[in-house]
């Protein structure tokens, strides 16, 4: 309390955030404090303001460089919340409408209220946190974005600022079961932390106590009935059980839906006659019926090489099968620049990747087994580490899906072979960690749900550096040695489901297969026709 007779101190509404005059104010002439006219700043994608409206700013970038939840003690205290939601932008992506006027600064690193990066920026009147400014980027808080009132506007806002991961999760106040990567400290620099997982007895007890097991047949009779019934269960008595587990309600709802759907999921079967027809029609429809959804990720802000055409093709033009059009190999660059001078995804993370081809083959190995091979081509793999090349010119990788006929003459995928470091990960179909239905593929929702097994389309994660295939993500290891092991970094920054028009039959009876089989691919010897020749004995 102020002493009797003294005036109540007023909030600092000037741009001088320290009690001492600032000797060097050149920073006011740099982004984001430099006031820019609209024609210089460019199109505005987002607008934001503090609680009282004194501070307003604009953003010219549609999506942040990265978004994350931070659970560190400092963020919990500063924001008065269990965690901080933050989005990273270039400083030039922001402009304050009033420049530095109305802003206060606090540098926790130097315990000063003078402007000195890194600094925490807030409104000098209502004290709303505005951003954390670093030396190279700034970190804003999406809650301040004026997102609009309609469901469509708010959905666009949520998707644009969706976090990639949790950091300092060891300091968490609550469990958040959202399937996102969780780091014990800084991302890419600390240990991974497992999600809280419902114990089997909890799942069983919840199902039995609500009678869901008795109602599954009727719930699954129509998708609309299923959605309504599930919402009724989740929004009713289960809320108390969920809260007691300290799981966010929305996250639990998504996880519970995946759990119950997983119990009912079953890969689509086809009849013996259907299989015969699919084989006689050239194999494309069969390949598409159970095709993977492919995921690619970047590490250390370095994009990967991305699949491409082997003989000069592109999304708009086919391969030309002669040596003059053979795609050149890409050179090795210093690690971690694994994607230098080769095709990259070319779009921001969190988006569908561009088109690429699948050089596929198929073979009936016996009366009860058919195998389909999905081959991907790259201009290289690996990188140079301390003068040593860890990769080679060109790279061929593949997934083999094995279809089996049961005693009732019904066909379905039984196993998947995922190529990895000159061998395979051999997975029973029901053991593949993440699968999608055909309806989910058509809808284009690549990232959700996770953890549902035994559906028609497996999620296949391509390793960042050397392109080995996995059925799960692993973002805990980005050192060069790990990239040649099963610890290889793989993530889901981009995804693509290959359209049937980009399937190229490549056995040795086709022009593509003959060209691929006769070309010199260096150490990448597992070209499609060579794999096809022995596919029935793999792995």
Mean pLDDT reading: 83
Coarse shape: elongated
How many distinct beta strands?
Answer: 26
Q: Report the portion of residues in β strands.
A: 15-25%
Q: What does the largest sheet look like?
A: 8 strands, mixed
C-alpha Rg, in Å? 27 Å
Structural class: alpha+beta
If strands are numbered along the chain, what order do they take across the biggest sheet?
6-7-8-9-4-3-10-11
First-to-last CA distance: 78 Å
How many helical elements?
13
Short description:
This protein is an alpha+beta fold and about 550 residues long.
What does this structure look like?
The chain has 539 residues and is α+β, with helices and mostly antiparallel strands. The chain has three domains: 157 residues, glutathione-dependent formaldehyde- activating enzyme (gfa); 65 residues; 268 residues, no CATH class. Helices cover 21% and strands 24% of the residues. It has an eight-stranded mixed β-sheet with strand order 6-7-8-9-4-3-10-11. A hairpin with a 2-residue loop joins strand 17 and strand 18. It is elongated, with a radius of gyration of 27 Å. The N terminus is likely disordered. InterPro entries: CENP-V/GFA (IPR006913), Mss4-like_sf (IPR011057). One of its GO terms (molecular function) is carbon-sulfur lyase activity.
Key features of this structure:
single chain; 539 residues; alpha+beta; glutathione-dependent formaldehyde- activating enzyme (gfa); eight-stranded mixed sheet; seven-stranded mixed sheet; 26 strands; 21% helix; 24% strand
